[in-house]
Write a structure and sequence with these properties.
Elements lengths: L6 E3 L3 E5 L5 H9 L1 H4 L8 H18 L3 E6 L5 E12 L2 E10 L8 H16 L4 E6 L4 H9 L3 E8 L2 E9 L7
Helix pairs in contact: 1-3
Length: 176
C-alpha cells in the first residue's frame, strides 16, 4: 500500500497527520458558525470526536487522510484538510477537503494545502484523479479548487443538498 507522509511543510503551513490529541483544536473549528455553514452545520463535541475517530481509522486503512494544519511561523492552528476515500453516487472517489479557521480566510492557506495534497495524491499515492466539492454558493471554496487546478464537472446531491463537483486528473496543468 502506498502511503502519504504523516507530516509535511509548505511555504506557510506545517501539516501533521490527524490524531486524537487534536480534538480540542477541531471542536472550536466545527462549532464556528462561519465555518460550519459550509460543512453541514455546527457539530457537537461528540460529533467532532466521532468524525475524528473515522479519520484515524481511514489513515490506518488507506495510508492517507486529513492533516491538522499549523502556521509554520507561529505554530498557531489554522485548520485541517487532506484526502479521503468517499462514495459519490455509487462510485468510489478520493476527495480533497479542507476547513480553515475563519480568521485566516482569504490568505491562500486552503489553496496552499490543496496544491500540496494534490501533489501527494498523484506523486506519493499514485492516484489518477481527485475530486472536491462544495455548496454552489461557496464562491471562496470554488475559487480555491480552481486555483489548485480542479475543473468544474457538474452539480450533484450530497446529504440531500445540491453541491458542485470539481475534478483534477493526474497530468493536468496544476502539477508543477
Amino acid at each position: 500500500m502506498r502511503t502519504a507522509p504523516e507530516r509535511f511543510e509548505t511555504a506557510r503551513l506545517r501539516a501533521e497527520r490527524s490524531s486524537s490529541s487534536y480534538l480540542e483544536l477541531y471542536v472550536p473549528l466545527d462549532q464556528d458558525e462561519r465555518v460550519a455553514v459550509w460543512l453541514g452545520g455546527v457539530s457537537t463535541p461528540a460529533e467532532v470526536e466521532q468524525r475524528l475517530e473515522l479519520e484515524l481509522e481511514h489513515w490506518k486503512a488507506h495510508g492517507y487522510g486529513r492533516w491538522a494544519l499549523f502556521d509554520r511561523e507561529t505554530g498557531e492552528f489554522v485548520g485541517r484538510g487532506g484526502l479521503r476515500l468517499i462514495e459519490i453516487e455509487g462510485k468510489a472517489e478520493v476527495e480533497l477537503g479542507y476547513a480553515i479557521v475563519a480568521e485566516r480566510w482569504g490568505q491562500g492557506l486552503a489553496t496552499e494545502l490543496s496544491e500540496a495534497a494534490v501533489r501527494i495524491g498523484f506523486d506519493d499515492l499514485g492516484l489518477r484523479e481527485i475530486v472536491a466539492f462544495t455548496l454552489p454558493d461557496n464562491l471562496r471554496s470554488r475559487r480555491v479548487m480552481e486555483k489548485a487546478g480542479f475543473l468544474y464537472e457538474r452539480e450533484f446531491e450530497w446529504k440531500d443538498r445540491p453541491h458542485v463537483l470539481y475534478r483534477i486528473r493526474s497530468g493536468s496543468s496544476s502539477e508543477g
